[in-house]
């Protein structure tokens, strides 16, 4: 069935919403076929019935959009079909489908969707969802088959260069009490690191952080900001929801970038996230990752930019350092703050004359570019910038 034929089956005013939004119908033949398939499901109506929302929520857990990694007409159709139901639910009801609620709120705030919806108000009026008050999700991880249980991958922090984390003595105590004894062998020297097997993004890794800190201990991944707002209790902080390709959904990340990057430049942005620092409380909000940003060599007032992955990158893709000793090494699951791994490596983070992000070995002075399998990560304009 063609796209036009599938849209013609939608009832009004949903059909008008999809047509007025003029969203992408798919960049590839496979995407186009999937867009048509989703619109056909929406036209049948079963996918958005109240009893089907739990199944739909499960499908949306790892997704930002229903087709590929960009907004399409399928998202507009699904949003419009969900609107009558979501607009009538109470918080306790839509909290039970967190991925679906997050998805709906993200789609309804896209500029093209909002513009098309406003022309059809009140049919598709903006739905106020109390997402900030939602109960925290329990992040689960499969138990390790080894005798020693690795720390949870999800328990990571986000502390930007501009903001100091507020210590949580109780959490520190619990962490110490539960810390596994280090009975494993020390991490191999940098020259042998390439012999390790690479762990997939979001996978389980062994916390082998003995020995000198090396860059490959840092877990970096492609992230996608699906929602961003200002921290209610801190003028300089953003609270972002960042999709890292994890089944548990997006991570909450707090970044001190309000005075340096406009909120509209943060929305829908793809970036590089550091995912294995210890969680940090930032003015009452726990942050589970850190965005990698470039600060001008003339100081932060001269400019701060998010490091950007190659075009076409997808949330959760592995980001690593070039070089045989680093490319195939496995990052530790969580960096021990006492080891100061990131603090030791970070002074070598910079942008080259090509604006490419890299780590410069302080001993050999060799530059190891930061990249994904598809290309090198860059700063939009800054040369010689520090990264943190």
TrEMBL record:
It comes from the Eukaryota. This is Nucleic acid-binding protein. It comes from Leucogyrophana mollusca.
């Amino acid at each position: 069935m063609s796209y036009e034929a599938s849209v013609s089956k939608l009832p009004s005013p949903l059909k008008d919403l999809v047509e007025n939004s003029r969203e992408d119908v798919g960049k590839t033949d496979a995407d186009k076929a999937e867009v048509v398939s989703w619109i056909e499901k929406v036209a049948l109506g079963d996918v958005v019935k109240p009893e089907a929302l739990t199944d739909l929520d499960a499908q949306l857990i790892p997704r930002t959009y229903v087709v590929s990694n960009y907004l399409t007409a399928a998202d507009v159709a699904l949003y419009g079909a969900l609107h009558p139901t979501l607009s009538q639910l109470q918080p306790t009801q839509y909290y039970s489908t967190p991925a679906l609620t997050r998805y709906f709120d993200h789609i309804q705030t896209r500029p093209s969707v909002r513009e098309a919806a406003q022309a059809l108000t009140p049919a598709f009026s903006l739905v106020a969802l109390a997402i900030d008050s939602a109960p925290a999700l329990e992040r689960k991880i499969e138990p390790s088959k080894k005798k020693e249980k690795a720390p949870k991958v999800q328990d990571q922090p986000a502390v930007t260069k501009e903001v100091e984390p507020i210590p949580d003595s109780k959490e520190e105590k619990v962490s110490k009490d539960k810390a596994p004894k280090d009975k494993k062998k020390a991490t191999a020297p940098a020259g042998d690191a390439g012999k390790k097997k690479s762990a997939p993004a979001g996978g389980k890794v062994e916390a082998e952080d003995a020995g000198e800190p090396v860059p490959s201990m840092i877990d970096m991944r492609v992230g996608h900001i699906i929602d961003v707002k200002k921290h209610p209790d801190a003028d300089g902080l953003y609270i972002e929801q960042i999709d890292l390709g994890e089944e548990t959904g997006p991570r909450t990340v707090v970044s001190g970038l309000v005075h340096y990057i406009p909120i509209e430049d943060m929305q829908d942005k793809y970036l590089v996230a550091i995912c294995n620092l210890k969680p940090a409380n930032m003015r009452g909000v726990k942050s589970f990752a850190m965005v990698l940003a470039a600060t001008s060599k003339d100081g932060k007032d001269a400019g701060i930019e998010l490091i950007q992955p190659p075009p076409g990158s997808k949330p959760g893709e592995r980001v690593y350092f070039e070089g045989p000793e680093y490319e195939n090494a496995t990052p530790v699951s969580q960096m021990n703050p006492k080891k100061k791994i990131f603090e030791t490596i970070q002074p070598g983070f910079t942008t080259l004359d090509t604006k490419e992000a890299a780590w410069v070995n302080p001993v050999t002075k060799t530059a190891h570019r930061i990249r994904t399998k598809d290309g090198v990560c860059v700063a939009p304009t800054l040369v010689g910038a520090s990264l943190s």
